[in-house]
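sorry for the late reply, my laptop died twice this morning and i had to redo everyting from scratch. anyway the thing you sent over, i finally got around to it. pasting the sequence first so we're on the same page, its 119 residues, then the predicted structure underneath. double check i copied it right bc i was rushing
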Amino acid sequence: MRWGMAATLALVVIACGLYYGPLRDFMKQENAYQKELATLTSLQRQNKAIKDQIAAVGSDAWIAREARSQFQLVPKGSQAFVITNLPSDENEPEAQTPAKPTELTLGQRLSDLWQALLR
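ok and here's the structure:
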C-alpha cells in the first residue's frame, strides 16, 4: 500500500515538473501581451488626437488662428494688441500618459490558461 502511494506521489511531482516550464512561458507571454496592449491603447489615443488635428487643419478658423499666432497677421482695418499671461483656448492635444499594463493575479492567469485550453 505504501509503495502505491509513493509511486502516485512521484508521478504527481513529475507531472507538476512537466507543467512548470509551459506555465512559466505562458505567464511571460501574458505579461508581454498586457504591455503591448497598453502600448497599443496609448498609440490609438495619440492617433485619434492627430487625426482630429489633421481634420482641423483645413478649416478657415485654423488658418486664421495660425496666421495670427505665427505671423502676427490681423484682418484689414484691425489693430493688433499683445496681451500676455492669458490661458490658452487652443485645442492642443493633451500630453498623453502611457497606459499602465494591468497586472493579472495568479487566479486570473490560471483562469485565462484554463479558458485557452478549452477553446
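Residues 69 and 85 are 15 Å apart (CA to CA).
thats about all i looked at so far, will dig more tmrw
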